[in-house]
Amino acid sequence: MYDVIIIGAGPAGLTSALYLRRANKKVLVLEAKSYGGQIINAHVIENYPGIQSISGYDFATNLYNQVQALDTGIILETVLKIQEDKTVITNKNKYQAKAIIIATGSENRKLDITNEQEFVGKGVSYCATCDGNFYKNKIVAVTGGGNTAVSDALYLADIAKKVYLIHRREEFRAEDKSLEEVKNKNNIKLILNATIESLNGKQNLQNIIIKNKQGQERPIELDGLFIAIGQEPKNEIFKNVVDLDEKGYIITLDGVHTKTKGIYAAGDTRQKNLRQLTTAVSDGSIAATLAIKEML
Ligand code: NAP
Known about the structure:
- The protein is α/β, with parallel strands linked by helices.
- The chain has two domains: about 1-105 and about 230-295, FAD/NAD(P)-binding domain; about 125-225, FAD/NAD(P)-binding domain (3-Layer(bba) Sandwich).
- It is about 25% helix and about 25% strand.
- A hairpin with a 4-residue loop joins strand 4 and strand 5 (about 85-90).
- Helix 4 packs parallel to helix 5 (about 175-185).
- The site of NADP nicotinamide-adenine-dinucleotide phosphate has 21 residues, from helix 4.
- NADP nicotinamide-adenine-dinucleotide phosphate (NAP) binds next to helix 4.
């Protein structure tokens, strides 16, 4: 019997683990892939209070090591189902806890066009930090209009010969400061009000077809396409114990409470106004503290 099972080893889940272990609680962290969550892909974090600049990888690794140093059990297993009585069923085992914190974050949204998955690793990527280095002096495109797309474009501009930044609207969601930096990079070319219609190439991606507002299509020759169009939660498996909004995020009451007593949701996986590192770790600490107060 664990005190708390945490599902997800991203910033929210690991922060919960940190607080719970420091309170000497018996904790199990279950993670399907590897620690760090989405932040591990951030080239540089400059908006986390108290840390002027750090890579996402270093941040995630420091947090992981901090949690590991407290003898926390972190196991790589995929959760398949959780029950109201706080049983957690994974692809390998069944666990029991007094409380559960769901901190499963979100996954990269797909463009959902033909060939997209076929070209993954052959020109299509969802992670500029991971794959950018393969495109030294080559031509790449980034699609998206948020902070991720803009920071990916800036990162790639220092590696690739040319970077197209393709966005479906005129206005960006990204911060003004980084948009200013984009304008100062002479190898980034903005393509606005355009959607990507198809991906083409024999073995590797060779060109994409884009369509403008007037419906005119044209090809762009390139070596790589970085898709940075946001994230989507994967909360279907929790539907028996939590309510989901129309986008699939967990609806929480009063911060991190779900509709089931003793099951909390922390970080990007829950419905909220701001999905940032700061709000993820905030959720993680609050969920842990409430679990101690209410369930242990
Ligand atoms: P995001 O802010 O949700 O932006 C997604 C972008 O992709 C939007 O511009 C959206 O266009 C576009 N998009 C969505 N679906 C599309 C589709 N099917 N086809 C074409 N374009 C599509 O996602 P994000 O940039 O990954 O950022 C996620 C969160 O992390 C945000 O809160 C962001 O601020 C934060 N973040 C922060 C930093 C930082 O502070 N340094 C860095 C990275 C991310 P529309 O604008 O037209 O909807």
